[in-house]
Design brief:
The complex is a heterotetramer.
Chain A lengths: L2 H23 L7 E6 L14 H10 L4 E3 L5 E3 L2 E6 L5 E6 L13 H12 L14 E8 L2 E6 L41 E6 L5 E5 L11 E6 L3 H9 L5 E2 L7 H5 L4 E5 L4 E7 L9 H10 L2 H5 L5 E3 L22 H10 L3 E2 L4 E3 L2 E2 L1 E7 L5 H13 L4 E7 L1 H10 L5 E8 L6 H4 L13 H12 L3 H18 L2 E3 L1 E3 L2 E5 L2 E2 L16 E2 L1
Parallel strand pairs in A: 1-10, 1-11, 18-19, 18-20
Antiparallel strand pairs in A: 2-3, 4-5, 5-7, 6-7, 8-9, 9-10, 11-23, 12-23, 13-20, 13-21, 14-22, 15-16, 16-17, 24-25
Chain C lengths: L12 H15 L19 H7 L1 H7 L5 H8 L3 H7 L4 H34 L9 H10 L14 H14 L11 H15 L36 H8 L5 H7 L4 H4 L7 H10 L11 H5 L11 H25 L2 H9 L2 H19 L3 H11 L14 H13 L3 H12 L5 H16 L6 E3 L1
Helix pairs in contact in C: 1-3, 1-16, 2-3, 2-16, 4-5, 5-6, 6-7, 6-10, 6-19, 6-21, 7-8, 7-9, 11-13, 15-18, 17-18, 17-19, 18-19, 19-20, 20-21
Chain D lengths: L1 H25 L31 H7 L1 H29 L1 H15 L3 H12 L3 H28 L2 H8 L4 H39 L11 H8 L8 H23 L7
The chains are: A alpha+beta, B alpha/beta, C mainly alpha, D mainly alpha.
Chain lengths: 514, 271, 447, 266
Amino acid sequence: MPSRPTSTSALGTLTALPLCLCWALSAPAQASELRYAEDQAPAIVNPLFATTMSEARLDELLFEGLYNDNKDLATSPDLAASAQMSSDRMEMTITMRQGVTWQDGTPVTANDVAFTIAAMKDKGTLSTEQGRVDWIDEATAIDDRTVRLRFVRPEARPEDKLFFKILPAHRFDGTAIKRTDPFRTNPIGSGPFKLDSYNDDGSISMSRYEGHRDRAGLDQITMREVSDKNYQAKLLMYESLEALVRVLPRDLAVLQSNRKVELYPYQTNSWWYLGFNLHRDPFKDPRVRTALAEMIDVDALLAPIGTGDSLTGPFVKSSPFYNHQVPAFVNDPIQVADLLEQAGYVNNGDGWKKDGKPLTLTVSAHKNLESAQEVVINLQSQLQSQGVTVQVDFLDEAAWRASVWRDRDYDLILSQWSFDRNEDIREQFHSKGSRNFTGYANKEVDRLLDLARDTMDPQEKKQALRDVHKLVHDDVPMVFLWTLDSYSAMSTDIRNVVIHPFYFFTWATDWAMQ
Amino acid sequence: MPEAFLQLDDLRIVAGPRTVVDGASLRLVPGQVVALVGASGSGKTLTARACLGLVDARPGIVGGELTVCDGHTTWRPFGLPKRQRRQALRAIRGTIVGWLPQEARASLDPLRPIGAQVRQVLALRRADGIEVPNDRPDARSWLSSVDLPDPDRVARLYPHELSGGMAQRACIALALARGSRFLLADEPTTGLDPTVQAGILDQLGLLRSQGCGVLLITHDLRIVPRVADQVYVMDRGRIVDLLPATDLAQASSPAAQALVAATRRIAGGAL
Amino acid sequence: MRSAQTRPKRPPALLTAGLVAATLTACSGGQPTPQPTATSSVLDGSWIAQIANQPDLFGGVVDVDSRAAWVAMHEGRWADAAQALPPGVGRARAELELAVFYEDLADLASVAWPDLAATWLARDSGVSDGPMPFLAAVAVISRDHHADTGLSAPTAGQQALLTALQTESGALPKGTALDGLDQAGCLAGDLARLSGQSEQSPQGCRGDLPLDLDAEGTWYDPLVYDALAHQTRRRADRSLGDVGWEQRATQAKPPLDLLLFGPAWTTADLSAAAAADSSMSTIGASGPTLSALHLPDEGPTDEPQAARERVRALDRELDPWQAHLLDTVSDDGKALLTDLQLVAQVRSRILLAWARLALHNDRPHQATAYLLLAIDIESARTLGPLNPPSLYALAAQASLRTGRTREALDYLSVLEAPYPIVTGLDETIGDLAVLEGLGRHGDSKEN
Amino acid sequence: MTRLVAASGRIVLALVLLTWVVSLMAGYDVVADVHPKLAGLHPSTSSLLGTDHMGRSVAWRLVNASQAFVGPGLVAAAVSLLLGVPTGALSGYRGGWSAGVIRYLWAVVASVPRFVLVLLVCAIYGSDPAVLAVVAGLAFAPGLSEAVHTRISELRSREFVLATRAHGVSPLRTVAWHLLWVGCRALVLRQVLYLFAFVLVLETSLSYIGGFGIEEPRPSWGNMLAFEFGVHDGNPWAWAAPALAIWLTLAAAIGVASTLRERGRA
């Protein structure tokens, strides 16, 4: 385990702690400033590389797409003004909104759109967002305000897929964009807020972009890094923050009884899971995975951290795709033993061993995943009592990105996926999915996922995904854990709040202060 | 078997540009009390300390020789190389030559009770192979031997809890307990009231009778005839006179005469 | 209880029942405590103030025989309450609540089905020969159903849509006549069976009607909800005998069984509600007591902020009043107030009525704001005194009408176990969610 | 009063040491002791001090947590004694240029604040308790060395040192026995107690913050406090007990240290 980054981040935590306290004592916010807390400040502000919710939320303030959701969640033009479809539905000609400028004053042109699509499609851009444009064959800027998109196959409602954020072409050297591109700390967007500064205390200051067509009601938005979630609710109550994105379940009661605070449900259709590294022994063997899954008592894991629904597959229980016919794993010691013995393990009372080597695994969890500690401790105890040794490794953001996203260097990860209302699990479970870091591959699942993507029959899609649910449950690339209710909290000083069910800040231009 | 003796020859000690002891010679033999008298600052104490090698580099011994003989071995430390000199000095310190310091209270370890200090000295004595008299096997007996009242209590006391006289007696007890052949007593009676003085002088007389050679350093001429056999008179770093203690009044050197005169002025012709 | 300083912990249902029992035992025969006079409020005339000051009044209504029924009433288990209470005011109220809840579900259905039909038609490709056309057709024709009005003739627009469905899919039997109550209910059952969306379809009923809806024990339990099948409103009225709500409200003395655990503060509020709205679905939304509190308007547009301000204004009245009440009443009264969360419950019910009114007036965003402030988040996934079933039906409707189809499913999922009849609705809205997501890319992020 | 403080402080410190020995011998399995169904139990006869919100025995974890700082505290004490005392004694007794060099070197170390020094070294070499202990010892060595230096150079010039030498006591023995053991023992012990308190504070605060110190599931009073603090409706003893333990131990260490006086000081 690379201890160095862990330690340096703890060093950061340590230095941030007094700062935290300073905020608590600091003067109230300036007029019309919204200060919100994230567990960790995003290191990269570039929508091409956004993998976490905190990044997605920040991008929502700074950038815009061609289309976006209106308050009734219907697709409506954003950077686009109007569009024409060709009769064969293979081409779309988009006319851009007039008079839109980037935050550095340069006009937003059709070329920026063509550039962004090209950049996302570029093999040199190691982005997880590629899947969002692979249906576009080519994007051509006709003139400054007109861009033509050619599709791979006919599209019924292409505008529903044109939500991705547009980047300023003039800020990049080429379409192969690296994660380390200097843009990440100096982003220029066309959104209602512009990034002013990264501050020493980990916070990010944004102010209203005066050149935006919808003048934002708030002068400033500040993202504050409060890594200790235990402090977040207190900071809100002491009026050192105006918003918490996600409230710890344990803080709900006290915040609900506080008349200065309003709670908004922030259901992001998210579920927790334990993901195996399928590239690695012994987790290649489905029997070992199944045995481990059967050893885990999910309800007992869930009990200490709050009320939620335990799941058997990759959907939230209220989802139309959730397959209620799939039974949960039952902890049957005989069956577990049977599976492990088939896989070549023996247990002579001192734990499961194969060729004298004990069955051990390391659970890696993101440091900022709330309640992860409880889950991991509990898991360790459960598995140890059944003869499996478990090591625990809490990773900070940098180590997580390196060992999970980049190197796939882990045994078992504890993490959480959040989905927008489409609950599209393709990237996670398709063998070519960009977020499939477990390395799961099942031809039938691939076929069903493709079908679910392409079909125009809701019944067929529903059935296909319910079948996927069954298959991924049986293959056990992950142990599906649960979904938890989540709420965000906001000071009643902030008015006209309507939050987007996934991106949170989509309608933040309307927000204003008392 | 040659007789034990301690002898200084032509000792010269300099302190910076000043010569503080300039060619001092003296000899001490067992069973004799030799007094070293002189005005303050005449170099008495330094001369005595030189006998133990307790004179630091500054002021430093630049010349002369110390010869110490215990009847078997003879040491001449000053002429030796540094390492051997240190060994030689360590051999004679305490074992052959003892020290009864001037500031009794300061010379006792302030952090340990008196009894422990006597016991330590006795342990050193035993380590050196010097016989411990049967009637004085422990700290208490040594403390009572110097007429300290309630020796058991005194043994538990710390130096700061003792009066000046008691401290001085304790120091003597330590010196006696150490069992050295020669004892260098540096102003042992200064600042004490006459009864205590008398007691201490008696102790010194007792030592002499036990065969110990005592060098008594003092500027109080009145006590000299009572205990000393011989008197060295020192003036500005030089030994200017050597005469029997009883003949002190007949001293020829101006320094000795000045001392005698001064003593008479104070004490009124009792000398 | 939503007041900062006196928030008691939620006791589980059994415990609540036990506490009520203990309170009753303790207060039987107790002397009424004198009325506090320190700060008088219009709320001092409410039933809550009455029973807090005179706990034995409460014991008079909730006697040993009916305790379980009133506990059910308190916790929003209205069907249980209606079955357990003897005929009379109490039962009528339970049945009314149930009826209103069913109507909330009917409203939800009447939003969901046309939405489904419209969305389905808007996607002009890939016509399915599944049950969708059926559902859409029923949606269209049952849009304006109300239990007491019967089936109205389809409007011109609805008729056109119906024709389009018939011609396009060919699935809806030609010449289907939908002109009778029984047939409509029957069709709903058939649809559920045909669609295969429910695990246990009801028996097909085409031809072998009539269903005796009034007969005890023959609860028609369709899995696609149809309000027409639930004649609870009629039962509620029958429980009152010949006397109407309005009349009853003025006669009752003491009027506690008319008001207990309800959103009306006084009988005056109740009769005002009866006069204003024959369906009685918005009791507590207005009335003399609330008028005296000078709450602000909701504003002319569907602005959630105005709704929030209104709730804040209500809280500014309720919180200090409750604190004062707790200071002045006896221990028995205090126990009643805190154990049963009476003020919080009434508050929740008032917001519910406001939300219902907002939905009737086409202000779904405001309705959402009311409902979010009404829900007790600590137990948001279970029904209870502060989270009655109607809350979820209304929240689902408000979500649906603000485009949050997926969230509507979340709310409905709470109702699914205790009310299996919503399964069909759940499937319908699920289909709508799937339909809306067709051809979209989803986004997913870590954490 | 002072006596009472000293006596009760000693008892507490002895208990802590005893706890440590017990925890080393008991073989309590920190991983196995998780019982969510028994979460948040209040103290009772069956579980002294109750359980935390994972159903783990608070009493056992409290005992086991002594391993987090007693061992490192002892190591740190040894390190600071080994480094600080000889150098302080040497510079104090010899004086002159050797004292200059020694004191300069220690001043360089001491110029970095203790906490920062520890964090710095931990950032480089990881946060192993052993590293923590050695660094804490190192961080305290300059202070110890300087205190010993001051005391010995003061004692050295006293007459009694001369007298001791005149009695034939060797210089090494004079330093080790008369000056260090007799003269500096209380002072050194005081410093060591402060160091122990420092190690406790260091360990508990690092574990509280997380990342550096003892990580779950291994217990430390710091992470026990962090883990339980803010849990609603839990067992208040689950966080009060470690907090109390930290406070008591610190008070004991500092109380005992402050009542230590050089005996027989003139």
